[in-house]
Amino acid sequence: MNAEQLADQDQALTKPCREPRCNAQIGELCINVHTEKPLKHQAGHLVRLRDAGVEHAPWDVRDLRRGD
Ligand SMILES: [Zn+2]
């Protein structure tokens, strides 16, 4: 993840995740529901990012074009 995504992750950790089968609590990283390991390429599940007020999601196409 880039610095912006890490900042998004810090913000996401202030809220619990409501993604089914993830249910990360405040301060816990979201997990990949298939592998049960922490997400590596996303700051958190979309629902959690929205709950935490993260303004643009890390999988936004603008990030893909930025190439970092
Ligand atoms: Zn989650």
Question: Can you give a write-up of this model?
Answer:
The chain has 68 residues and is mainly α. It has one domain. Helix content is 34%, strand content 0%. It contains 3 helices and no strands. It has helices at 3-12, 46-52, 61-66. The longest helix has 10 residues, at 3-12. The protein is globular, with a radius of gyration of 11 Å. The chain starts with a helix and ends with a helix. Residues 17, 19, 22, 24, 30, 44-45, 48 line the site of zinc ion.
Shape: globular
> What is the number of helices?
3
Helical proportion?
25-40%
Class by SSE composition = mainly alpha
Q: What's the β-strand tally? A: 0
Helix and strand sequence: HHH
List segments where confidence is low: pLDDT < 50 over at least 5 consecutive residues: none
The structural domain count equals: 1
Mean pLDDT: 86
Bound molecules: zinc ion
Largest sheet properties:
none
Radius of gyration: 11 Å
- As a percent range, the share of strand residues is under 5%
| Amino- and carboxy-terminal Cα gap | 9 Å
